[in-house]
Amino acid sequence: MKKTIILITSLLVCFFSFSQSKEKAGIINKNQKGIITSVEFSSIEEKDKIPSTANAFFEEYLEVDTNDQFEKVQHKSKRKEFVHDHFDQYYNGVKVDGAGYNLHYKNGEMYFANGNFVKVDNINTSPSISLDKAIISFLNFKNIENSKELNTITELRVTDEFIVKFKENVSQKEIEKLHKNHGVIAVKTTDIYQLLKVPNGADALEIANIYPLPQSFT
Predict the structure, then answer these.
(1) Which of 8, 14, 16, 54 lies 20 to 30 Å (CA to CA) from residue 200?
(2) What residues are paired with 94 via a beta bridge?
């Protein structure tokens, strides 16, 4: 009987030790779906458990899989000892609207993380219709009327960016004035289109709707 009690006690100690080693460091907050919304790292005792890289945090805390990607948004920190990195979330290369994470460092060590991670399950991201059909369907759904000021073709996305193609009769001066009035930045310019990015906090869909659309898409 004594040997049995000792054996059970030993097993419990081993199990407890194993469970403790699997515990995540930091003060963790979760939403109603059980997804982590913030982590505060402050305990000196847990210093060796703090993720050393962004990927380590995403894998250990958000438990991402191969379909989930995070893309770092470039910025400049005002104070050298503090770094605040923002990552936009993508699923199979498609940006997830309103999703992303912020990682905060002090002297190279992560001390806080917060954001909105959206768990996407088995969604087919391959387009089922052509771009032209998608534009026509969207215009019909939104009941968007033509404008006589400028002729453009606009592809709307659920992100902070949208693509616009101006017809040849639109001058560069008119294009630049339109961009300036709405605070957009040309991220990429080709012979066919311009990729535009709206200001932080702005509604890309609302601004894209301001850009006039061609007669042929009504």
Answers:
(1) 54
(2) 91
Q: How far apart are CA 193 and CA 186, in angstroms?
A: 10
Instruction: Tell me the pTM.
Output: 0.52
Q: How many domains does the chain have?
A: 2
CATH (domain of 38):
3.10.450
- Bridge partner list, 87: 72, 101
Query: Which tens digit of pLDDT belongs to each residue from 43-84?
Result: 776 788 899 999 999 999 999 999 999 999 877 777 788 899
CB count in 10 Å sphere of residue 40: 15
Does residue 10 lie in a domain region? no
Geometric angle at alpha carbon 44, from 114 and 73, rounded to 5°: 30
Give the C-alpha separation, 25 to 45, whole Å: 9
Owning domain of residue 48: 25-116
